[in-house]
Amino acid sequence: MALVAFMQASNSTVYAGSWRYPGGAADFLDLRYYQRIAATLEDGTFDLVFFDDRLAMPSIYGDSCADAVRYGARPVKLDLTAVLGALAASTRSIGLGATYSTTYYPPYHVARTFATLDHLSAGRVAWNVVTSVNDTEAQNFGTETHLDHDARYDRAEEFVEVVARLWDSWEDDALVLDRDAGIFADPDRVHELRHRGEHFRVRGPLTVPRTPQGRPPIIQAGQSGRGRDFAARWADLIFTGDPSREVAAEQYRDQKERIAAIGRDTDLVRVLPMAYPVVGESEAHAKEKEHMLLERLVHPMASLTLLSEVTNHDFAGHGLDEEITDELIESVTGVRGLVQGVRRHVGPGTLTLRTLAAHRATLLQGPRFVGTGDQVAEQMGDWFTGGACDGFVVAATHLPGAFEEFVRLVVPTLRRRGLFRERYTGTTLREHLGLPRPERLA
Questions:
Q1: Which letter, b or e, does each residue of 205-214 get, where b requires 16 or more Cβ atoms within 10 Å of its Cβ?
Q2: Which residues contact 137 (CB under 8 A, 6 or more apart)?
Q3: In what helix (H) or strand (E) does residue 183 lie, and over which residues does it extend?
Q4: pLDDT of 5-42, one tens digit each?
């Protein structure tokens, strides 16, 4: 199986209460914090650690960032270029991924950033493609409102194609480096794009030669039909959120069918649901930790703040115990899919805003594998061998402890069961994932 660690360059993990975990590290503004975590994951031979990102502090709720700041609802987001550059220097094998938006960055900037990082890491970088989520991000980049869903994906399609062609603007053998003749590179093997599309005009070529991986792998997490089609075309790793093995298996089948329909090899695209492992020295210890994580560490207002962020809707006029009605679902973009996902967890009956919000900030938004190292490995193995996934995006409940426990207690069992590598055998991220180096786009 593929194992990818899900990180944030932030005060918390994707689990919004992680900063309150007893004994958790609080030096998230110190470079050595990220280097320690990356070293732990590399000891566990993870394929990749990738960092989520947002381009604004959560400020939709009440048109203010006050609650995000007060309750630690991910108000901190460090620049990922600096973080990945530092991790490239402190690690040797593990892949390094970063989130960059196709809505608020130009394609040339993204292409050059990731090409540079791929060279400096000796071929270990991946790009997590997002289209961003809300108006606050738009307002940080000079516009008032966020593009609608389909417009963002229209832009993203052209964006990723331009980036791919920029990465391919140097042929592999373009560098000559003939000192005697004074020839640095062959101009016939370095190509201008002169791209003129609906959204972008980019002359090219890139100022960075073709990278060790040819093109860095692409991660994508679109859940809508349009998002799944986009992932089928471009993604090497598809990041999903599935509450149960049955739901995961259905999404896995659907996504692989979309990949096959456009002529790509389905074995070369990994579908990876996010999961929270809660590991203990005993089953009772693990369940005690799970209870604390579910019940004690996430403030309800942090949950509501993050729900407003992801739906781009201000819930300040609603009470936490207000029922989610059909009228509310119809009026708030993005809520329908969340409601459907939550109902898969809780079943029919009254659904309140408190419960819906909790699924955005707590351990309720993905499957939990709870127990001893052997029990967690068995649960993961059931999903993997049962046709539900190609591996997992492992989300931490606290740092650095959750990853340390996973590497110490779960990884050895996965190895004994023949489900995970004993050591790195390649040097690039593509080699870790069993992905070929791509041919240049003509």
A1: bbebbbbbbb
A2: 54, 55, 56, 101, 103, 104, 146
A3: strand 183-185
A4: 999 999 999 999 999 999 899 999 999 999 999 999 99
386: helix, strand or coil: coil
Q: Is 442 helix (H, G, I), strand (E, B) or coil?
A: coil
User: What are 86's two structure tokens?
Assistant: 């530092």
**Is 224 annotated among the ligand-binding residues?**
yes
Tell me the domain boundaries of the chain: 2-295+366-433, 299-361
Range 220-228 contact pairs with CB under 8 angstroms and sequence separation of 24 or more: 220/128, 220/129, 221/128, 221/130, 222/153, 223/337, 224/149, 224/337, 226/149, 226/150, 226/153, 227/153, 228/254, 228/255, 228/258
pLDDT digits (tens, 9 = 90+) for 250-308: 999 999 999 999 999 999 999 999 999 999 999 999 999 999 998 899 898 999 999 89
Question: What is the pLDDT at residue 316?
Answer: 92
Is 308 annotated in a binding site? The answer is no
Question: Does 64 show up as a binding residue in the annotation?
Answer: no
Helices 335-346/300-311 angle, 10° precision: 130
pTM, to two decimals: 0.94
- R_g over Cα of the chain: 22
The DSSP element (H or E) to which 109 belongs, if any, is: helix 107-120
Encode pLDDT of 141-160 as tens digits.
998 888 888 889 999 999 99
Q: Has residue 341 got a pLDDT over 80?
A: no
Do the annotations mark residue 153 as ligand-binding?
yes
Query: Is 149 annotated to bind ligand?
Result: yes
Nearest residue to 259 (alpha-carbon basis) of 228, 220, 297: 228
Q: Could you report the per-residue pLDDT of 296-307, keeping only the tens digit for each?
A: 998 989 999 998
Q: Of the candidates 279, 251, 250, 378, which has an alpha carbon nearest to the alpha carbon of residue 238? A: 251
Assigned token pair, 114: 């990731």
- Report d(CA 358, CA 366) in Å as an integer: 12
Question: Could you tell me the CATH superfamily of domain 2-295+366-433?
Answer: Luciferase-like domain (3.20.20.30)
Residue type, 226: R
Beta pairing class for 183-185 and 195-196: unpaired
